[in-house]
Amino acid sequence: MDVDGGGMSTDINNININHPLHARSKAIHQFTQQTLPACKPVLTPAWVIGTFFLMGVVFIPVGLISLHASQSVNEIVDRYDIDCVPDTFKSNKIAYIKNASTPKSCHRYLKVDKPMKAPIYIYYQLDNFYQNHRRYVKSRSEDQLLHGLRYNKTSSCEPQAFENGLPIVPCGLVAWSLFNDTYSFSRGTKKLKVERKNIAWKSDRNHKFGTQVYPFNFQNGSFIGGGKLDKTIPLSEQEDLIVWMRTAAFPSFRKLYGRIEEDLEEGDIVVVRLMNNYNTYSFGGTKMLVLSTSSWLGGNNSFLGVAYIFVGSSSILIALIFLLLHVKNPRPYGDTTYLSGNRKDISS
Amino acid sequence: MQLNNHNTHNGPASHNSRLVYINNPQRTNEEYEFTGNKITTSKYTIFSFLPKNLFIQFHRVAYVYFLVIAALNQLPPLAVFGRTVSLFPLLFVLTVTAIKDGYEDWRRHRSDRNENNKESPVFQIGKFRPKRWKDIQVGEVVKVCADEAIPCDMVLLGTSDPSGVAYIQTMNLDGESNLKTRYARQETCFMPFDGDLISGVIRCEQPNRNIYEFTATMEMNAQKMSLSQSNIILRGCQVKNTEWVVGVVVYAGQETKAMLNSAVSPSKRSKLEQQMNKETIWLSVFLFVLCLVVAIGMCLWLIRHEQQIDTLPYYRKSYSIKGKFPGKPYKYYGIPMETFFAFLSSIIVFQIMIPISLYITMELVRLGQSYFMIEDKHMYDSSTNSRFQCRSLNINEDLGQIRYVFSDKTGTLTENKMEFRKASVFGKNYCNSSMVACATQDNAEITEPAKGKNPKSDVIVDPGLMGLLHKEIDGDERIAAHEFFLTLAACNTVIPINNQTNSIETELHQDLDYQGESPDEQALVAAARAYGYILFERTSGHIALDVNGKKLRLDVLGLHEFDSVRKRMSVVIRFPDNNVKVLVKGADTSILTILRKGHDNDNITLATHHHLTEYSSLGLRTLVLAAKDLTNEELEKWQLMYEDATTSLADRSLKLRETALFVESNLRLLGATGIEDKLQEGVPETIECLRQAGVKVWVLTGDKQETAISIALSCKLLTPDMHQIIINGTSESECKTLLPEAKTEILTVDGSVALIIDGNSLVYILERDLESELFELATSCSVVLCCRVAPLQKAGIVDLIKSRTDDMTLAIGDGANDVSMIQMADVGVGICGQEGRQAVMASDFAMGQFRFLRRLLLVHGHWNYQRMGYLVLYNFYRNAVFVFMLFWYILCAAFSTTSALTDWSSVFYSVIYTSLPTIIVGILDKDLSHKTLLKYPKLYEAGHRHESYNSFLFWIMMADTIWQSLVLFCVPRFVYKESTIDIWSMGSLWTVAVVILVNIHLAMDVQRWVVYTHASIWGSVALTFACVVVLDSIPVFPNYGTIYELAKQPTYWLSILLIIVAALLPRFITKSLHRMFWASDIQIAREAEILRKKRLFYGPWKWR
Q1: What is the interface pTM, i.e. ipTM, of the complex?
Q2: How many CB atoms neighbour CB B145 within 10 A?
Q3: Which residues of B are less than 8 Å from A2 in CB distance?
Q4: pTM of the predicted protein model
């Protein structure tokens, strides 16, 4: 390519820059001569030290507040996948879980250490379950979830798109492996009410899962992956499915099961009656039940608060070090005698 | 080819020539149809556009890489991205380029159409009738009127001028603005053009691109005559000052010399780009390692889970028993193949590790930088109305790292506007007193009034010489003086142009304007005019002089043009009294050896030689004039030789040279001239400034040693206190001893040393194995001056440095003799001067004045280098940080090349989300103002030290990249540990975080914030948010609604803030430490600059 200025040129030297009519040409002139009004930041010691102090001053309080928020969250975690296997099957858990005739029900007793205020969120937590595996993540069909059987290009759902020669709704591995342990809670003799509605995102319920799409030919194969769906309820109301279909980002994840809308007092014993249906034994995964309150920051995770405090305090420390160094060994600001060409002259 | 044994022409050269029957296009095109006059500069037609454009585009490696990646992605087991998504980057780039090419081609089509549909009168059926250009055929007779463009290459048959002269302007062809004369042969120019009477055959060469040569013969009415360069007018030129011309078409359309010359010179690669390619190889290694880790991980994972993969809910290798393909594996090809596919698909995911888009970005940035160089008003030469030109777009940043400048002298350091200063006539020196004294003499009635537009006319006349000329013609000295000025006026190729229509009658010839190809000749003719020998008319056959009022018509029998072997030119002239004389002028060495030997001549020769040395030590260009009377026998013999030489097609130049050597012998010495070539404005300052900047300036000139040294002294290249080492070897053995001697000499001298070496020695040195010795010697000297060097030697010297060091070389010159040097050097700069445009055509950059070099290197070179170095590093970082972030995630997704980011965001990242700010910063950022850069030339050495881009910076940057990517990955990983976060929310967080992070990273390094920088950086962040919102608002995407949910959570925002601060913390600390305690020159100068500005603004008291 050849960029040629050509012979023609407007004489920009003669522009009277004070004249208002020439404001445009002045701007063009500044642009072409690279003299546009500009801000030229320089990292002076004052700026550097100031910035570090500022960072410390902002970060430490934010960290403290976050830490406080996360510590105000109470949670009860109970791993039940081993304990809920009867002793006779302890050596062969897979046989236990695959055998439809073995009783799957199981009781857990959770002691409340600190009072928990409603709403108390019920999560189930799976470990070592790679919901983010590429084969798994891709094995679904958004169009089918929205349009149901009308949409038949479900090749992305393979190997779980057809069963007995008929299409499956909802298709794909994700839906097929739907989590199907169930929990019910009671305190003393009184059953705790568990709110199971509104656990999925509203946007998912309203726009992503069809209101007229009903499960079809689902979990009809010989190889059952997980939960079954009520054929009479449209997908948009199958909230467990909707929650499950928001595949988790990491192999260890929680999913919302429901909410307890009652406060729990310190010392309460919550009895959980659960159906241990889901097979995590075949791949060495774990299952946990989590009861947790919530704060404005989310769950019981102090990482954010600690990290903020750490970054903030190191900023302050660095600021102090810089201040010390600068006071002990200052370099005159913008002193051109320090240019390498001039230094020689000074020494000689 | 054509007409191997034609009935009349079966000479040896006939198969190599083309036959044109004048005014008989049918017969001309009978045996072999010559190309018509239709031209097509466009590359495509509507139908061929798509395939041809794609074919051309895929010649670039970058696009092939894109294509291979996209093709890989189409394989079912590798489909990492959706089909359309994976094609997007390729399609985007292809479309943009195709639109650009299409638009350019449409413009070419339009101009072709305009050109082809122009009309010119063509001789048809007894009359000149208009015909479209595209229909004109070879052999037709075409008429062109004044100021019209010439439609094809034509041999002149006649012009409105009775003597057959036509003036043409060749600006479009070679850029020279002066008028050139072309002649119709006397035999044809009186032919009537009103009937079918014109007929004849022209035998000419096959079409070629040499616009300075044409060889042909014309046979008409059984008369054979030679045709040369002066008889042809070329397409692209314009007829000027001539009412009309008539010519016969010999080359048409694509075969015209103008069209054959429209080729581009090979492109150069910048050094930074070469180094960058090395680092790109490292990036490929990273890419390979990352892919290998993923592949091995995949392999191990599969081996560990081999028993489970059939039942794993998230893997399920097979179809179900009653499914479509009962029990068959689904996209599972066994562990080795799966490993291999994991490798390939990770290449797809990590593809932007190799920053292919960087090449496109760099091109755009260079385009912008070039725009600012072109627009710089400090590099605009108002005297020639020429702007700076960027002819090559690949090497802008090389300008910031130049170590050696090789400069031509004439026209580059000097103005190449010659002024006649001194004359030595018959052994006597005139005007050797001070020139001011000469000028004060009262000779106003003789001296031409100086005219602004004709700088050659202000000649200062020496009264002594003038007095001599006013004596009666008697005595040797008087005759010599007469012949001296006759030679000045007659022995040249200068054309007098009469601006006043009837000025020949007015006798004054005030409006005579001399146009010629050589400024020296113009100066000499102007000098002759000042002394009363006025050249006022020139045709092909004669010249007319006005000698002190008396008109003198001289027949020019022959002219031997200047060539570089003979180094002289001569004319054979018949005087009105039938005397025939040979007038010669040329370089001293070439003439002093062919003088007549004789007792009194020797004295004159000696005296003249003395004067010559004196002139050249004053820095004047010298020429020696000589003459000889031809006897009748000599004349006859010469005429035979000349006739034979000029009519021959083959070896014409060789034969002409022999003829010339025959007459140019036994000459009578007339005298010598000294012409001053003024230094260009600002040359000493520029050279001093370059020297301070650590740039070595070498001058390579064809001039004599004395001239070269004196010019070097006057432009401060040499200083009187410098020790000069002069090497003038005349044989190989002498050079062999001279070089080591010089080397030992250097060791003994303290202070700077200048090496002066002449072309003769260079012949022995460059062609033998003494090169390395010369290299050692030359590099230890601070100044090198090479005189009497031939064009190829200039290139040889450049190569001497280029091949032995890594240092960047720049060659600057203005003439055709500098072309080889300009092409050899890393950066070639052409001066648009007096000597035509060949140098400019071969150059990478062209400018009007030598002094612009200072600004070009110190200011623009520095800026471009800084910008480009940062741009490359930043782009490496920008892509690598993204890839590493994906990599860490894949490690916790069972090596399954899952990307948390949506396909579109992955693709948009380098194309839309982050591309604009780097381009804007690459074009607009500048670390120091031009004032500071010019004030402290030392700052240029930052480029020599590779401060902006080097391996150390690359590795530091990579370490920083890995840290930043780890922060990017780990902060969300731990913040959302054991939480309900889903993969798309995570991806959304990462998309936004990485875009903000790289933009803030860029913002930290921006040195000059202008409106556009703000707009592009913050605009990109906003655009990314907008894109994420749009992508999350489409229900068929699995990520539907994500950003709306995320933005509600404070955790999301706190995580992003933490990521950015934690990621940039080490970088900021290092940067601040560096600034405060190990500040570089640039940083100090920058502080000083800002301090100065503040002082100006607030007044000095506040900052004292």
Answers
A1: 0.92
A2: 13
A3: 264, 390-393
A4: 0.80
